[in-house]
Write a structure and sequence with these properties.
The protein is mainly alpha-helical. Helices cover 39% and strands 5% of the residues. It has 2 helices and 2 strands. A two-stranded antiparallel ribbon has the order 1-2. The structure holds zinc ion (2 copies).
C-alpha cells in the first residue's frame, strides 16, 4: 500500500502542500526537508529556537559561541 496519494501515471503528491513528484523517493526527501520537524538537532540547545536547517543552526550556534566568548571577556 502506498503511503502517499498517487495518480494514474504514478506521480505522487505531497500530502502537505500537494506538490507533484515523479517518484516516492523525491517526495520523501521533500517531506523530510520541508514538512517534518525532523530532529532535536535543529533546535538550538542554548535558547531552544528552531532552525530551518543544519546550516542555519550552525550559523546560529556560531553567534552563541561568539556571544559567550564576549561575555567571558575573551573577545
Ligand atoms: Zn510538500
Ligand atoms: Zn540559540
Amino acid at each position: 500500500m502506498a503511503p502517499y496519494p498517487t495518480d494514474e501515471k504514478g506521480h505522487v503528491y505531497c500530502p502537505y502542500c500537494c506538490r507533484k513528484f515523479v517518484n516516492r523517493y523525491n517526495l520523501k526527501v521533500h517531506v523530510r526537508d520541508k514538512h517534518e520537524d525532523n530532529s532535536m538537532d535543529l533546535n538550538c540547545q542554548i535558547c531552544g529556537k528552531t532552525m530551518r536547517n543544519q546550516s542555519c543552526l550552525r550559523v546560529h550556534m556560531y553567534h552563541h559561541r561568539k556571544q559567550r566568548l564576549e561575555e567571558a571577556g575573551i573577545l
